[in-house]
């Protein structure tokens, strides 16, 4: 029965028997019985729990004991294995120690044998030295030379032989380098030249102005020559009016001024009003028109070449190149051709094509400034490029294309090579006869200055130098040396287009006369 039900019954009985003396006695008896019953039940449950926990503890103890025994067995097994390994190692170490002892005995025995042999070798060396000294004394008596003189003669002969061998080796190395190093360069240069074709206009210091009839000559000259004087003062060009029918000569070293005079004269003849006031007006208008045309030529050239961001002043200089020439080669056409060559060569070499084309177009801008300073055109062009914001590699390529400053970038040798290709190829430039003859004589005089040279001939328009040497005075090795020395002197002392091939010829001729 539940304790709550009992309490409720007791409360009911208490209510029924309230005020009666029996309540206490009944309640006390019932409570004692219930207490004893609860205690007995609790003791029974406690005994049952105690037995269960004891059984569980015994089972856990047996499991832990079994695990401990297994761990102890494994540990003993590992210890036994470690002891076995240590025992094997001790045995191995004892064997190695025994081997070392045996080897030490063998080494000691061999050391004794070596010492004995060294003593024998030392005795033999002393005997050899004594015999050598005796032989040296005998050789000195026989040859009449002491050891120092003999050594000197031997060294001299070895030096001459080494020099000859070195010269032959240098020649072989140079030939091999030319064969291997120039192969790819020749391919690139030939391909670059083949891909560029540019027309060249031959210009000089005189222009011809054609007129319809000779009556215009008198009008151009004017009364007492005032018209022609006004025209010459306004343009800076010398105007030559002679008996040549239908033509007037305009003479000036500045092509821009010659063009200005030609255009102004054309406007005056077309207009018909020729007098000093009209001449000054026409020359001023023509000059402005020519400046605009020069600027337009520069812009159009930059657009055609794909060059952007060029300063206006540099663009104007590019336009002025149209009216300049070098050795009969139009400067603008030469610069355009050089730029195309540079772009092609830079593309073959994997370099910046735009920068190469830019440097090629601007490499000769130092030839067109109006003030004409004393600086070389390459250095002046570099200063102008730096002034107007060109990049350092482009400026260095402009300044170094004639070796007047040191090359610091890969664009510089490309511009130098392409400038030489454009200017030195056949038909690109013309040379005065006097300069041509002087250059040939200079080549021959350089060759004739060497000892043993009998004759020298500059052939192939100065592209090849044939040198004849005397066979009894010059050896084959010395002939190689002479050819290399002549090439170095020509390269350092002379100015010439392209390259000069030096051929040294040495031959032996034996002559006899049958009578």
Question: What would you say this structure looks like, in words?
Answer:
Mean pLDDT is 80; it is low at 199-203. The protein is built from 15 helices and eight strands. The chain is flat. The protein is mostly helical and 515 residues long. The strands form three sheets. Strands 1-3-2 form a three-stranded antiparallel sheet, covered by helices on one side. Strands 6-7-8 form a three-stranded mixed sheet, covered by helices on one side. A two-stranded antiparallel ribbon has the order 4-5. The protein has helices spanning 3-16, 22-143, 147-194, 215-221, 226-235, 255-271, 276-305, 312-320, 331-349, 353-362, 377-387, 392-399, 411-424, 433-448, 476-493, and strands at 206-210, 238-240, 247-251, 325-326, 329-330, 453-459, 464-470, 501-507. Helix content is 69%, strand content 7%.
């Amino acid at each position: 029965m539940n304790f709550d039900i009992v309490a409720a019954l007791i409360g009911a009985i208490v209510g029924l028997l309230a005020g009666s003396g029996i309540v206490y006695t009944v309640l006390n008896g019932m409570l004692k019985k219930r207490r004893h019953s609860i205690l007995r039940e609790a003791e029974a449950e406690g005994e049952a729990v105690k037995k269960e926990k004891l059984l569980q503890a015994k089972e856990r103890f047996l499991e832990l004991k079994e695990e401990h025994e297994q761990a102890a067995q494994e540990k003993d097994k590992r210890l036994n294995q470690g002891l076995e390994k240590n025992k094997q190692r001790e045995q191995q170490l004892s064997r190695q120690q025994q081997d070392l002892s045996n080897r030490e005995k063998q080494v000691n025995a061999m050391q004794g044998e070596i010492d004995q042999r060294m003593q024998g070798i030392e005795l033999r060396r002393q005997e050899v030295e004594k015999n050598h000294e005796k032989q040296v004394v005998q050789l000195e008596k026989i040859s009449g030379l002491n050891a120092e003189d003999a050594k000197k003669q031997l060294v001299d002969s070895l030096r001459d032989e080494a020099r000859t061998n070195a010269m032959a080796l240098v020649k072989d190395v140079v030939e091999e380098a030319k064969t291997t190093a120039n192969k790819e360069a020749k391919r690139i240069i030939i391909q670059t030249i083949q891909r560029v074709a540019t027309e060249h206009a031959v210009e000089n210091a005189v222009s011809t102005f054609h007129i319809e009839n000779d009556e215009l000559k008198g009008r151009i000259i004017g009364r007492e020559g005032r018209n022609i004087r006004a025209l010459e003062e306004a343009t800076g060009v010398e105007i030559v009016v002679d008996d040549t029918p239908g033509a007037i000569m305009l003479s000036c070293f500045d092509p821009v001024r010659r063009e200005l005079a030609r255009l102004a004269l054309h406007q005056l003849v077309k207009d018909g009003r020729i007098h000093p006031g009209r001449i000054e007006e026409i020359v001023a208008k023509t000059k402005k028109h020519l400046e605009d045309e020069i600027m337009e030529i520069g812009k159009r050239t930059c657009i055609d070449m794909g060059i952007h961001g060029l300063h206006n002043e540099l663009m104007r200089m590019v336009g002025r190149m149209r009216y300049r020439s070098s050795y009969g080669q139009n400067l603008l056409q030469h610069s355009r051709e050089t730029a195309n060559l540079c772009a092609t060569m830079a593309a073959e070499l994997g370099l910046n094509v735009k920068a190469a084309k830019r440097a090629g177009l601007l490499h000769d801008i130092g030839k067109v400034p109006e003030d004409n300073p004393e600086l070389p055109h390459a250095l002046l062009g570099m200063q102008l490029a730096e002034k107007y914001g060109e990049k350092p590699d482009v400026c260095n390529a402009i300044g170094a294309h004639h070796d007047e400053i040191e090359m610091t970038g890969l664009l510089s040798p490309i511009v130098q090579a392409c400038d030489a290709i454009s200017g030195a190829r056949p038909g690109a430039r013309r040379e005065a006869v006097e300069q041509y003859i002087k250059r040939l004589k200079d080549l021959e005089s350089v060759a004739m200055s060497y000892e043993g040279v009998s004759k020298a001939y500059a052939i192939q328009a100065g592209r090849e130098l044939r040198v004849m040497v005397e066979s009894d005075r010059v050896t084959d090795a010395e002939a190689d040396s002479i050819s290399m020395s002549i090439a170095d002197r020509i390269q350092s002392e002379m100015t010439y287009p392209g390259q000069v091939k030096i051929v040294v010829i040495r031959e032996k001729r034996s002559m006899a006369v049958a009578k």
